[in-house]
Amino acid sequence: MSLLSGRYPLNGKWLWRCRRRSLPLVIALLLVGCAQSDALWTVTHNLCMNNYHYRRDPAPCQQVYLPQDATQGYSIIQNPRHKLHFILVPTVAMSGIESIALTLPGRPDYFGDAWLMRYRLMAAYGAEVPEDRLGMALNSAYGRSQNQLHIHLTCLREDVYRQLQAERPYIGDDWRPLPDRLLNHTYYARRVMQPTAMGIYPVSSVARHFHLSPPQLADSGVALIPTTFLGEKGFILLTTRRGWDKGNRASVESLLDKRCAILSAPPADVSVRE
Question: Is the pTM of this model over 0.70?
Answer without folding.
Answer: yes
